[in-house]
Amino acid sequence: MTDTSDKAYNGLREWIKRARNKEYSWETIISKADGSEDDVRFFRNNIESNFWPDNSMSVWSKVVGEVRHVEDTLKRAIERTNRSTLLGPNQKNMLEVPEEEDSCWALYSLKLREKGFTNIETIQSECLNILQSISSDTREDSPVKGLVVGNVQSGKTANMAGLIAMAADHGWNFFIILSGTIDSLRIQTRNRLYGDLKNDELGKFAWQTIDHLNLKNPDHHPTKINLKNDNVTRYLTVCLKNPKRLRDMLRWINYDPKKSQMKILLIDDEADQASINTAQPDEQRRTINRLIVNLVEGKDAKGNATGRYGAMNYIAYTATPYANFLSEGLPESLYPKDFITLLTPPNLYFGPSEIYGSDDMPGMNVINTYENVDRAIESLHGGTSDQLPDSLKDAVCWFLCCVAILRKQKYSGPCSMLIHTSLYTDHHDNVARAVFSYLTTERSVINKRCETVYPKQTSMLPLDRFFEEYPNFAVPKSKIHNYPPFSEISKGIDELISAEPRHIRMEEEERVYHNGIHLCIDNSKR
């Protein structure tokens, strides 16, 4: 069967889109391949003049069906996006999705398609919705402030990159991402965004990352930055939410009079972390919040006005938005006065509503409930015992089974299991000590326990039942691996527990990993 997703068929798709824009019906468009003399002439002319593939007439109905599916999906996505957006008093702008093949958005969406994303129309609709809610000129107005709410690990970064791409196509030239408080995660975010956006050979814009906005950095001194309207460079920086880094950024931005040429899109990633002003109303703002507010309002680190940007748009992204819209609503704050919008999780996503259920979704049969374990957990917390309760041993064994399955399927990425029984750091250490003890002192019997746990867990959610409970899952049933026999993963389990578990400390500069189990203890004192 011909792969009509190839770019050789772009000409057909563009003609169909133009016909739809002129309000041609789908019946009229698809009838072009009916075989009349006019139809044959239509295809011959386009093959000769517009370099359509020779088989264009035979694949016409297939291409029409694909374009129709995209249009219908996009229409539903737009309706869903409009229902999930709250707007302030400002009217939305009239910007459209960039259509040029060398646009940042077109090249980014092509990357998404190559990576196997199945929700590109939804991403496009939601990015356009946000784009139409911001402003490319705030010289006479206050900064735009909005909030984007997405589920945990559900594609917020893909939406950020799409929004940046669309904004770059429409004239925004300076992109700032505030990325948590851990530098390794900042670097990870920077590399991913730059990889998503960079297309120097094919794109109309050249992307330049600035690793640290600092006046001592000669390579990226503000006097070397070109922000003229006809310049093709777009600047991207990912900054820690750290007082020193934010002060350096404010000094850098306020150093040069070209500040008035900056059309800024400022994205606050995980905006509920460090950005919120947690001070009482009669107290001074918390330092990080104050510095971010000064950045948004066009002030220096001390709060002195230093001139307006060409445009300033602050967009907070978070999965836990309560503090963001329940905090202060003062004019000079980070309150999302202009819009709040919800992102749609992709149909590959498993979150609380998919697992535990909601009003219109029953949830999945994967929950194991145990009673009478409180006393055993209390003993672990208090350090009087290092024996895991049977329920937690079963959970660890099921995790080992799952990792062994993934290793069998040649998956080489990290897999993690969260054990959360308390909010106290001493308890975290004691539970980790018990897990370590189990994986080392009972190594000889773990595989046998896994063999007992495996059929119990796999019978709870067999493949057929999974598709009954999640009928809209993006991957077809024919491409889903079924559970293998335990005999095929037994060796993999032994390999996982053959080496002593390592403790990973976040402050270690050169961490050493092996192919087995690693313990990472949150807020640990060890």
Give a description of the structure.
This protein is α/β, with parallel strands linked by helices and 526 residues long. The protein folds into 3 domains: 7-73, no CATH class; 97-342, P-loop containing nucleotide triphosphate hydrolases (Rossmann fold), CATH 3.40.50.300; 352-519, no CATH class. The chain has helices at 10-21, 26-30, 37-49, 56-83, 104-114, 120-131, 156-169, 183-197, 243-253, 287-296, 322-326, 352-356, 374-382, 390-408, 425-441, 443-460, 463-469, 490-498; strands at 85-87, 144-149, 174-179, 206-209, 233-239, 263-269, 311-318, 339-342, 502-503, 518-519. The strands form 2 sheets. It has an 8-stranded mixed β-sheet, sandwiched between helices. A two-stranded parallel sheet has the order 9-10. Helix 7 packs across helix 8. The relative contact order is 0.08.
Keywords:
526 residues; alpha/beta; Rossmann fold; 3 domains; 8-stranded mixed sheet; two-stranded parallel ribbon; 18 helices; 10 strands; globular
